[in-house]
Structure formats: C-alpha cells, structure tokens
C-alpha cells in the first residue's frame, strides 16, 4: 500500500514518535486504505501547509467496520468488568505517556495553542480513567419479591455496536469520552472523526491498539465532507448499529435522529449552543471578567459551551465592559508553534467569514465596537485564519449572533435592568446547552439556576466541564449525557428477568 510522505513539521511541533502521525484508517485491527483508494488532505489552519493525506472512506468501508465491530462485540460483551477496566487503564497510561505528541498533533491540525492542546489531552484522558473505574460499578438490581414463587432481577447489558461521530474542536477529548464509556459498558465502536482533524483520532486509536484492544473493537474511518454522508447513512441503515453518539450541529443531529428511527437506535446528541453569561449588579466584577475570559476564549471561542451572549446589569455595565475590553485587548494571537499565543486560528475560511459577518451585521444594526473587530494579520502565519479578539457593546436581539453560534473570539454585551429581564433574554433561544451567571446573592443563585433553561449551569464559574459531571443539553441542544455515571447509562440496556416456579410445597 502507498502512504503519504511524512510532512516537514515545525521544529516545535515535531513528534517524538513519528509513527503516531497515521495516514490510514483502522478497520478490524488493520491499517488500510479506503476500499476505492480515495484520499483527502489534512492541512494546518495556521499556515495552510499539508500535514497528511488520509483515506476518504465511504459506504463499503463503513460496512466493513460494522462487520468487524459486530464480531468483536460478540466476545467483548462477555469480558469481565475487570478485563474491560484493565484495557482502559492501559489506554489511559499510553495517552499520558504520549501526551506531548498528542498535543502537538492537536495543535497542528486544529490550531489551538500548545498549552491548550496539552490540557485537552489530560481532559480526554480523565474520561478514560473515569470509565475504567465505572466499568467495575455497573450494577443491576434484585427487586423486592412481589409474588410468592417469583424472583425479579434487573440486568444491565451493552447496547451493541456504537457509531461515534465527533467534531473538530476537541478532536481527542470528544472521541475519548465516547469510546471510553462504550468499552466500559461492553460495546464495540465504529468512529468517524471530523474531516478537519482526523490525525488525532487515528493516533488515539493506535495507542488503544498498542494497549491491547482486540481487533475490530474500535474502528476509525476518516471521511471528507463529501463522503461523510455515505459513511453516516451506511451506519444509520445498518440494524447492527444499535446506538449513535454525535457531537456537532443541530441540523445534522436532527437528521441523525430522524434516520435512526427506522431501526430504532439509541441516540445521544450533543448539539449547538447559544449560552448566556449573566452578570448581576451584586457580582464580583473581576471574578466575572476572569470567568468570562476562561469560558469564551478557550480554543479561540470555538467550543459549544462558549458564552455567545453576555448580559450585564445596568449598575455595573460600563465598569464591566471597560475591564473586559482591557483583558481582551491583551490577548496574544498567533500560531501554536509561536510559543506565547493564547488565541490560535479559526479552523477554516468558513469559520473566519462567519465571525466577520456577525461583527459587520452587529455594527450595521447599531452595536458599538469596543475593541478588535477585524481579521488579524499574523506575521508568523500570513495565510492563517486568525481573527482579532473582539468586544461589542450595545447588543440587541435582532443581531445575528443572538440566534446563531458565532464560534469565534467575539463577545457581544447586552444591557439589562431587572432579573426577570435577564432570565427572559437568556431563555429566548431554541438552544439549551450551557448557561452562566455571576451573583453573590445566595437566594438569587438558587432562583436563577432553576429558571435558566439549560442542561448545565455555571454559577460564579466559567469552566464547568468535568469527567465526573453529566455533560449535555436540553431543547435543540440535544439529549443524552456524557461523562459521570449518567453517561454510562446511554451505552446500556436495562433487562428485566422474572424467574418463576420457585415456590416449594411444605413438607409433611
């Protein structure tokens, strides 16, 4: 088989183990090309440089992956909880041992600063470690005897083959937090990483293979934007695929939900968001600014839980905006190999154009530009998709960012007068993934936390994700949960067993 020549990587991002830059797909334990030989390019969003060419998988590859996963599932479902945990623990150790190379791969294909990529590796590894432990805590139940001569049991069993479809913004963490609970539960996996970031997923699969995963237990199929529907549709139509776990856009999530109905698959959807960030008059302004910076500008604003609308009460509005502007203007923009960058490039030209359009639309409708507002010209990477971190004041409900995720380093600030107004503004969206608010009034904390229509709420905190907590949304942000003991339930069936004819006649 032919392979792509190894690219010349920036010295600061070169891999200690070059073999972790994989240019084939993984099916049934074998690294191979796509059935039809097609390939597509993976590029660095900071420079446009070619990183690799990987198989452009299609329907035939998707079917072969399910064949392999189904065979592996037949054996893996019978593995003991300790055997499943042991594999996950070995995988966790391998991820930590190769943290630097994995971080460099993330930065190369996704663009985030290297410090953030290192953090993502640890974040993803935390899910593997968590579910290694949870694998040994999958409990059934014995129900109270309701009738003489009968015993009632509840068993937890793996759902079967799981199709995991992951996004580009966290190419390691999103895949790890789907594969880990699936393996812990006794399932097998077919996975399709995002077209922009397949290299991290393939490296992660290589480490799992090195940790001793049986052939076919996890299969990874890269696919281009054009070929992705063929892969997804093959899995949707295949009755052997019993669960879809998807992180991505609401539009695609709705398609997957509709198409899964024909075979009644179990579905978990973590979809778009439009998170409000409310700052009340009684808040600690410095803490609120720090929390917003952490929540909004991680990964250049390209996360589903990023605050998309910042609502600040009248009494502290001007003070807050001034403090926020100073913090935002100080952010350093540049490529991951620049060393000091805090904001990397956006993933592609489409993402860059969307942020620019949101800014232009807001200014045309009366918003005030406080800082930023334009594409960032980066001397180290003149062809990169960089945007200057931006703050807009005077945001109103008719502006496009009020209805669409910006997914970039732009903060619009709304002004509000009353708590009721803030709640109404925050909930005036079809989405309900995350919400944040800052207040030192303990009574308000409980009232607002319950009033906000979101699956996750950060109170005086901008970083709410944790492997120990259930991650997911409500409304058009999807359903199902990832992480925590609740996240394992999505990979399990509940089986009720009734054993009868147990009554014994009294002896004479």
UniProtKB/TrEMBL annotation:
Keyword Oxidoreductase (UniProt): yes
Catalytic residue list: 270
CDD domains: ALDH_F5_SSADH_GabD
Keyword Transport: no
Protein origin, superkingdom: Bacteria
Family: Belongs to the aldehyde dehydrogenase family.
Protein known as: Succinate-semialdehyde dehydrogenase (NADP(+))
Provenance organism: Cupriavidus malaysiensis
């Amino acid at each position: 088989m032919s392979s792509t020549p190894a690219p010349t990587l920036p010295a600061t991002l070169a891999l200690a183990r070059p073999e972790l830059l994989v240019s084939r797909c993984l099916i049934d334990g074998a690294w191979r090309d796509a059935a039809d030989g097609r390939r597509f390019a993976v590029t660095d969003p900071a420079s446009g440089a070619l990183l690799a060419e990987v198989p452009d998988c299609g329907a035939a590859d998707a079917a072969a992956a399910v064949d392999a996963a189904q065979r592996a599932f037949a054996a893996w479902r019978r593995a003991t909880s300790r055997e499943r945990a042991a594999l996950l623990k070995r995988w966790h150790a391998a991820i930590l041992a190769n943290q630097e190379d994995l971080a460099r791969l993330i930065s190369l294909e996704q663009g985030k600063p290297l410090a953030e990529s290192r953090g993502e590796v640890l974040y993803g590894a935390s899910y593997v470690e968590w579910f290694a432990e949870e694998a040994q805590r999958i409990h059934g139940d014995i129900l109270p005897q309701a009738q003489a001569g009968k015993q009632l049991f509840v068993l937890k069993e793996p759902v079967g083959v799981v199709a995991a479809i992951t996004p580009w913004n966290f190419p390691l963490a999103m895949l790890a937090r789907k594969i880990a609970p699936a393996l812990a539960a006794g399932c097998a996996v077919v996975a399709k990483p995002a077209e922009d970031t397949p290299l991290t997923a393939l490296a992660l699969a290589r480490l799992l293979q090195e940790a001793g995963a049986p052939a076919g237990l996890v299969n990874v199929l890269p696919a281009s934007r054009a070929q992705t529907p063929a892969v997804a549709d093959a899995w949707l139509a295949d009755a052997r695929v019993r669960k879809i776990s998807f992180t991505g856009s609401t539009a695609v999530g709705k398609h997957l939900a509709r198409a899964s109905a024909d075979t009644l698959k179990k579905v978990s959807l973590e979809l778009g968001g439009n998170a409000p960030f409310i700052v009340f008059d009684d808040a600690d302004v410095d803490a609120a600014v720090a929390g917003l910076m952490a929540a909004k500008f991680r990964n250049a604003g390209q996360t589903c839980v990023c605050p998309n609308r910042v609502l600040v009460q009248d009494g502290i509005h001007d003070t807050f905006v001034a403090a926020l502007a100073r913090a935002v203007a100080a952010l350093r923009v540049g490529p991951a190999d620049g060393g000091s960058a805090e904001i990397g490039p956006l993933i592609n030209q489409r993402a860059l154009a969307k942020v620019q359009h949101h800014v232009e639309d807001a200014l045309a409708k009366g918003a005030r530009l406080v800082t930023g507002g334009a594409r960032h010209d980066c001397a180290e990477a003149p062809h990169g998709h960089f945007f200057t971190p931006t703050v807009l004041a005077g945001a109103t409900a008719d502006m496009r960012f009020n209805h669409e995720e910006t997914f970039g380093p732009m903060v619009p600030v709304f002004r509000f007068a009353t708590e009721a107004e803030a709640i109404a503004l925050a909930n005036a969206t079809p989405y309900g993934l995350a919400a944040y608010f800052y207040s030192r009034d303990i009574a308000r904390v409980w009232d607002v936390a319950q009033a906000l229509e979101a699956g996750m709420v950060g109170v005086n905190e901008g970083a709410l994700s944790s492997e120990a907590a259930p991650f997911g949304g409500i409304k058009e942000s999807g359903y199902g949960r990832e992480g925590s003991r609740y996240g394992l339930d999505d990979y399990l069936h509940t089986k009720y067993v009734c054993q009868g004819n147990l009554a014994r006649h009294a002896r004479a």
